[in-house]
Design a protein that fits this description.
The chain has about 140 residues and is an all-alpha fold. The chain has helices at about 5-15, 20-25, 35-45, 50-55, 60-70, 75-85, 90-100, 110-120, 125-135.
């Protein structure tokens, strides 16, 4: 069966005669991956140890292992820290945020613009936090 685009799903949702019908007909189209699984998939593409990732993401190894095991669910900011630590692309970060149910980075928000710029240009988490502080925005940690 062909994978439906988000646009197709949205159109079907708006035209459905009932929510139950829509859910039943599109059960296979819903994303059911846990954040830990999504992060693991991204981590597997990168060549970094979990100890180094924890350092670069500004978190303890214990917390990191809890996230990867599914015992902890990271906040949006912690997920962004992990993406920065993994040197994820902006596209990978946006996809992870979307799949995890968080708002994607939005360039009209100054804070999100600073973070996006940092992702695109390979700026470290510490430097991004410094810039957020200078811009009077909430830091990532």
């Amino acid at each position: 069966m062909e994978r439906k685009s988000t646009g197709q799903l949205n159109q079907e949702l708006m035209q459905a005669s009932s929510l139950g019908e829509y859910v039943s007909e599109n059960r296979d189209a819903f994303s059911e991956q846990a954040v830990s699984q999504l992060l693991s998939e991204l981590y597997e593409k990168k060549s970094i140890s979990k100890a180094a990732l924890a350092r670069r993401a500004g978190m303890s190894e214990v917390y990191l292992h809890q996230v990867f095991s599914g015992r902890r669910s990271p906040s949006r900011d912690r997920l962004l820290c992990l993406c920065l630590g993994l040197e994820a692309t902006l596209e990978e970060t946006q996809e992870l945020l979307r799949q995890a149910g968080f708002a994607q980075l939005y360039p009209r928000h100054k804070r999100d613009a600073v973070i996006s710029y940092g992702l695109v240009h390979g700026i470290s988490l510490g430097e991004i936090n410094d810039r957020l502080f200078v811009e009077n925005e909430k830091t990532l940690f």
